[in-house]
Amino acid sequence: MRPIRNASSSGGSKPIITDPAYGSSLIQVRDKLAETLQVLRSLGLIDASGVLTLPPRDTSALSLLTYRVLNNVDYSYYQGSYTMLRLNDGDLTNGMMAEGVSTSKVFIKIAFDVPCFPNRLQLWNGQFNGGFHAINSLKLYSGLVNSDADPPLFQGSGIAYQSGATEFNLSGIEFTSRLDSATLVVSTGGSSASIREIRVLGQGA
User: Cα–Cα–Cα angle for 23, 29, 30, nearest 5°?
Assistant: First the structure.
């Protein structure tokens, strides 16, 4: 088995936790877990009672995260041109105007260009000429989902139209790993949904 290296006082290298080798026995897996716990204790992440506390993410330096919309063809749009592809084009004078939404919900599936920790989400709600068909709630899910029945990573409700951006703080989410994709489920209570722009800020790979 590959050992876990602890930080030395002279070299200053960080502890390394490796996965158990493929085909390891239960005893080997147990030993690997014991080594992992030892490293976590040495870092001060596990207290005397065995409680694991992860340090907060450093949000002092955030950047604009680029993403691609994956399911643009799932919906119909006003004049056929105000599509999801306009949600991150940097132009606040147009955006998505989805029509004929039978469930009053629009699933916006995105893939980030680099794996990331999203920290803030900025939403320009409604249309450039007013709050027509503005959304009133949103949910954020990790990965690509087709249902919003499960608890989301984040949920915002009572969202109102405003000319500027509505910002949602995602720093309280305990991510287990960086996201490479996500799904936003937005609701309007009607059959149309309009959003001018969605921008995500956070920490990339």
Answer: 155
With 50 as the cut, is the pLDDT of residue 17 above it? Answer: yes
Tens digits of per-residue pLDDT, 144-188? 999 999 999 999 999 999 999 999 999 888 887 899 999 999 999
Question: For the chain, which domains are there?
Answer: 1-55 (no CATH), 63-204 (2.60.120.260)
Contact 95, 127 (CB under 8 A): yes
Give residue 27's identity as a one-letter amino acid code.
Answer: I
Q: What is the pLDDT of residues 27-38, one digit of tens each?
A: 887 888 888 878
Backbone angles phi, psi at 41, to 5 degrees: -65, -40
In 41-77, which positions are buried (b, 16+ CB within 10 angstroms) versus exposed (e)? eeeeebeeeeeeeeeeeeeeebeebebebeebeebeb
